[in-house]
Design brief:
This protein is an alpha/beta fold. It is built from eleven helices and 16 strands. Helix 6 packs across helix 11. The longest helix is centred in the first third of the chain and has 15 residues. It is globular and about 55 Å long.
């Protein structure tokens, strides 16, 4: 029998606050981190995004001191992980603990000023592990487009169940940068106002930046927050950036995750969608939900609150799932007003109490990648 894997600590650091509780409070109050910005350093035209402000960066940098030069990306990763570690009394033995870094761009903002080795994700992972005091085990990097965070949690679960480690510190992080903004602008994928996942008037994404951490263990010494029960991945093999037109490949990953978790589709009480607010992603996700028979399950996207945080998204959204399981309340989907996808999914518009036992997390990304995970109440 496989060991159970529990979440014992989380952190989210974004424009909405410096911990997961602040994010839950913001969602409860209907407050979003996405706003209009005018900054010629990033774009000649105004843009909508979720960015950590100067005062928050001062707090982050004040708490992350080091003898070596750390990039803002590395500082954000270390800050988030330290906040999660401080929230628990349990001491994680370094020899039994693996750090997994989920990111898509890392130090991309240093592209024109740093040596090549300093841009390697593995270099950042090693620095972060050392700064946290968990360098005994070689850290791992998951960089698989926008499914990175969900894949990292599933990978961690499997390594813990295999007995390779007892604990895993999963850190998801990406910074807002001109490189990424210009890239998505070239795809005409950026909305010129606040994004609206699954809505009839959606026109694209808002980018965001965040650091998020989830700590998993097979040996909790205090009351755990949630359990991760299973996960899966698949690939559309459709297009380098465009998702499947049928949703069948994401549906395959959903069904495989449910099977591994020992849960049926009718048992799922909430779906945390990828929900980028692009035309084809939201259509594809709705079709996958239809194929798996979960049209009536309450569904939301966090992108309207924090923007699309790329490699941090799956970890951030998993931390919010854990908050939802703790509070037994559904998360409303910011920006949604009327259905704009071909399958009539049940998008949550108000925060409300619910009996939430099982939650499905979905993610999809460039290259046709899909990843899913099933979380459960303890």
């Amino acid at each position: 029998m496989k060991a159970k894997v529990y979440a014992i600590a989380t952190n989210i650091t974004s424009a909405l606050g410096l911990d997961a509780k602040a994010h839950w409070a913001a969602v409860s109050a209907g407050r979003v981190g996405v706003a209009e910005h005018t900054d010629a350093t990033y774009s000649n035209a105004p843009f909508w995004a979720s960015r950590i402000d100067a005062a928050m960066w001062q707090r982050i940098q004040a708490e992350v001191k080091s003898a070596q030069v750390l990039s803002p990306f590395e500082q954000l990763c270390i800050f988030s992980a330290k906040q999660a570690l401080r929230s628990i009394e349990q001491q994680l033995d370094a020899k039994d603990t693996i750090i997994i870094l989920s990111t898509t761009k890392g130090n991309i903002e240093w592209l024109e000023q740093a040596p090549d080795e300093r841009l390697l994700l593995s270099t950042s992972a090693n620095i972060i592990a050392k700064e946290l005091g968990y360098e005994t085990q070689k850290p791992m990097v998951i960089s698989h487009a926008c499914v990175s965070g969900v894949l990292a949690t599933v990978y961690a679960q499997r390594m813990l169940q295999a007995g390779r480690y007892k604990h895993a510190i999963i850190i998801g992080c990406d910074r807002f940068s001109k490189f990424v903004l210009n890239g998505f602008q070239s795809f005409h994928a950026i909305d010129n106002k606040a994004c609206r996942p699954f809505d009839a008037e959606r026109h694209g994404i808002n980018l965001g930046e965040a650091g998020a951490t989830v700590i998993l263990t097979t040996q909790p010494e205090e009351a755990p927050l949630a359990t991760i029960l299973g996960g899966s991945s698949s690939n559309d093999a459709n297009h380098i950036s465009g998702p499947s037109r049928t949703g069948e490949e994401l549906a395959l990953a959903i069904n495989n995750a449910l099977s591994e978790a020992g849960v049926r589709a009718i048992d799922i009480n909430m779906v945390s969608a990828h929900g980028t607010a692009t035309l084809y992603n939201d259509e594809m996700e709705s079709k996958a939900i239809g194929v798996t028979g979960m049209q009536d399950v309450p569904l939301h996207s966090m992108k309207g609150y924090c923007g699309h945080t790329l490699g941090a998204a799956g970890v951030l959204e998993s931390a919010m799932i854990i908050e939802s399981l703790q509070h037994q309340q559904l998360i409303p989907s910011a920006g949604y007003e009327s259905l704009g996808v071909p399958v009539a999914i049940n998008v949550t518009t108000t925060q409300q109490p619910a009996d939430i036992k099982y939650v499905l997390k979905m993610a999809s990304g460039f290259g046709g990648s899909n990843a899913t995970a099933v979380w459960g109440r303890v």
